[in-house]
Each structure stands twice: as structure tokens, then as C-alpha cells.
Design goal:
Layout: H1 5-24, H2 29-35, H3 39-56, H4 58-63, H5 66-76, H6 82-90, H7 92-96, H8 99-116, H9 118-122, E1 129-131, E2 142-150, E3 156-166, E4 169-177, E5 180-181, H10 182-197, H11 199-207, H12 212-217
Antiparallel strand pairs: 1-2, 2-3, 3-4, 4-5
Helix pairs in contact: 1-3, 1-5, 5-8, 6-8, 6-10, 8-11, 10-11
Length: 224
């Protein structure tokens, strides 16, 4: 089951803005960890910062939606726990993959997702997002932050962010959208394709710009 585009775009928006907020404050990843920002503060600041950046250049982003992907790519990847999430997405295939294959998959998968949702991010506005406060035990190393994203028809979709505490601070590794785990969904999609065609086939298609969902649709057929 594939998640709604605007909802997944909202998920990417929050992750991207986390890094932008840190950059604006002149903090390194280690500095962010030392600042003591909790999971709720990370998500809340992320949303506000990214929305501000979009509002300031919305016309330019509408003319060139790919620039949104570049913005997300620039600020998200250094701070999102990409390796941890990729390990979960690949599941058993992570163990058999070479270091080069692992890194290629991480880069190709996230660039593919970010580039394909630039159009939805262009029109993402503050009234489409609500972040709920989260009470997290100071000794916890895992946390969940609940939010809601409003779709174009007015319906609200629950979006839960799963974060883990790392030496560089709190980082997101999964998003559960209306009960659907982002990580689990793609693990099922890619798992069947990798079993049939091998990990290099999936990586090559991602690197060529194919959408993850389109790759999953061909898991029973011949890879292009």
C-alpha cells in the first residue's frame, strides 16, 4: 500500500527542515546534540524553519520544483539517520551487500524519494501540518512524535515520526503514515525485487531516476 504523495511530502519537509534549523543556528551535528533539543523541539523547529524557507522562495520553487529536491537533499541527508533506515529497508539483504552496494543504495534511494516529491512540497503550507507535544523520558533513547497532515480534501492523516538518540542528537529513522510504516513498506517492495533480480538491479533503476513504487510494481516481471 503506497502512502499519499502530499503526506509523504510532509514527512520529507519535516526531516529536511531539521537540518536547515541547525544550519541557521550555526550548529554542527555534535553541537546539536549538546544543545539538548528533544524530539518534539526537533520536529517543531524543523517544520517552522522549512515552511519559512519555502515561503521566502515559493515562486522560484514553483518554476523549478527540482530545486526543492536539492534543498531537501542539502539539509536532510547529513542529519537524517539514513544508514540505520537503509539497513532496515534492505533487511536480510543488508548483510550480504558489499560496503559499496550499501552506500549506493543509501544515496540512490533517498535521492529518488526526495526528487520525486518536490512538486508536492512546493505547495506545502503551515495550515496543512499540526505537531503534537511529546513527553519523553530524559533517559529514553527512542521517541515518537505525533503529527497530522491535512490532505487536499480536508481529511487529516496521522503521521508518527520515530526517532532515536545518537551521539549527534535525535535523528528520525522511520515515519508511520496512517498506520503504514515507511520503512516496512519499502522493505516489502524492494525485498521481492532484490530476491528476483539482485540488489544491483534495484540500485541501478533508482540511480536512473525510477520511482520506488514503480520498481515494486515490476517485482514479478523482468527488470528494465
Amino acid at each position: 500500500m503506497r502512502v499519499p504523495t502530499v503526506v509523504l511530502a510532509g514527512a520529507l519537509l519535516i526531516g529536511a527542515a531539521q537540518s536547515q534549523a541547525e544550519n541557521a543556528q550555526g550548529q554542527s551535528a555534535q553541537g546539536a546534540a549538546q544543545s539538548g533539543a528533544g524530539p518534539y523541539e526537533v520536529v517543531q523547529t524543523a517544520a517552522q524553519s522549512m515552511l519559512h524557507a519555502l515561503d521566502a522562495n515559493r515562486d522560484a520553487y514553483r518554476k523549478g520544483p527540482s530545486k526543492v529536491g536539492e534543498l531537501v537533499d542539502k539539509y536532510l541527508l547529513p542529519h537524517f539517520d539514513t544508514e540505520f533506515a537503509a539497513r532496515l529497508v534492505l533487511g536480510q539483504h543488508w548483510r550480504s551487500a558489499t560496503p559499496e552496494q550499501r552506500q549506493r543504495f543509501i544515496d540512490a534511494f533517498y535521492h529518488s524519494v526526495l526528487n520525486n516529491y518536490g512538486n508536492a512540497l512546493v505547495d506545502f503550507t503551515a495550515d496543512k501540518l499540526k505537531v503534537y507535544p511529546a513527553n519523553v523520558d530524559p533517559n529514553s533513547t527512542r521517541a515518537t512524535v505525533r503529527t497530522e497532515v491535512k490532505r487536499s480534501n480536508g481529511d487529516r492523516v496521522a503521521v508518527n515520526y520515530y526517532l532515536r538518540k545518537t551521539p549527534a542528537g535525535w535523528k528520525a529513522w522511520d515515519v508511520v503514515i496512517d498506520g503504514i510504516s515507511y520503512v516496512n513498506s519499502y522493505r516489502e517492495d524492494f525485498g521481492a525485487q532484490i530476491d528476483q533480480q539482485g540488489i544491483d538491479a534495484v540500485i541501478n533503476r533508482l540511480e536512473r531516476g525510477e520511482k520506488p513504487g514503480d520498481i515494486a510494481k515490476t517485482s514479478g516481471g523482468k527488470a528494465s
